[in-house]
Amino acid sequence: MNYEHIKSTVLIVLIGLSIVLTWQLYTFQPEIALLDDTKRYVPSESLNTEREEKKLKEVILPEQMIVHFENKFAMIPKHDKRFQQVYDKLLRSNLDVVNTLATGPFPKRLEQGGVEIIFPAAIPTDLFFSLFELGEEEMTVPLTELDRLFLFVDQSEEVYMQILSVEEERVIELSTDLSITDFTTYVEAINDFKQVEPIVELPPAYSPKLTTSVYVPVEPVKASRLSFQTNSLSIKYYQQTLFTDPSLVKYYQQTDGEDSYTDGNRIITLQNNSLFMEYINPIFIETQERNSKHIILNGYEFINGHGGWSDDYVLADWRQTELRDEASFMLHVNGYPVINFEGQGSMSLDISRSGNQIVSYTRPLFELDSTPIDVNERIELPSGQEVIERLNEQEFFQPERLSKVVIGYEMVMRNTSFVTIEPHWFVLYGNRWQKVTFEGGGSNGLE
């Protein structure tokens, strides 16, 4: 009898304990603040509150503007307000195709001159015309892409524009509604700008009427050596934006000591002491249909989508192969590209796409303060003609392999929060950027 009472009592206690535990489990709320902060989900808005989207016309910009007037040539510096004025007024104008069978020459040789606009890479024509405020009507031209423009005053006293496609070996002409008074003001101000000369005509294999020139300054050029404080960009932000489910992301340290984060498929690897990151999103389909959207636009939208324009990055180059499409947006400071980071390549945002999927994204994980620390030091660089003479001294130098001759910056990181950028001459030779040296450094003048 007592045994049965004991069993009943124990059963009642167990039932009561079960009810209590069930209630506690049902009403339990974890103390989020006490959890490991590295594993907490942080809304992307709180990590990137100061990032803003950019307009496409802010990242597709001319590389050079060359004024032609009375057999003289001058370059409008990028930091000159008139550089942006010319481009903005062009993009606000209305266009109309007037000659699709133009035969050149490019640019036209005219007494009243004109302005040649050179882009860093070929721009798809439909993408270029999307930059214009053209209204509802879409501009259609028989060109796939363009490399250069030439604005000039026609005999009818209106401003016209030549469009050159080097790859297609073709030029067409369009009319604009640019103010002839405004336009001639820029042309007649040629003496305000840096005098340049055409030193190489490219490419020699194409029609002589459609060759293009490389322009370099006639006189030595002064440019500033600048120093900046840097700010680190949060890797947490890129975990939240680039991984589908951030809660699945785990941290690993690779054999080379670099940190990495992966959800089992995608991976972010930190490189160069966590100054840069590489995002890989592998695909497992052998064949994919090529995306109809151009890689320039796809890359721009991808970076815009997560507010990745941490500094002044603009389109530098793009390429397509059977397996992959790539686009690169290079950092610019004071109008000059940052071509070298401690000898390891440019400061750039690089996008790779296979089929419809972004499969690779590399970028710096730091940004520059908006104002440099010291702007007083100026460095005098040799003239562009001296650069060409230096190159011609080399036994195996081939002028036809020379694509660009520009002043650019080399960046050196003095410590984890301080960088210095110094101007140098660079050439794009054989599709590879190389620094031109004049004293020591490289035995053949190139590094």
TrEMBL record:
Coiled coil location: none
One Pfam family per UniProt: YycH
Domain of life: Bacteria
Every Regulatory protein YycH domain range: 4-438
UniProt KW keywords: Membrane, Transmembrane, Transmembrane helix
Bilayer-spanning residue ranges: 9-26
Record-given protein name: YycH protein
Protein source organism: Halalkalibacter akibai (strain ATCC 43226 / DSM 21942 / CIP 109018 / JCM 9157 / 1139) (Bacillus akibai)
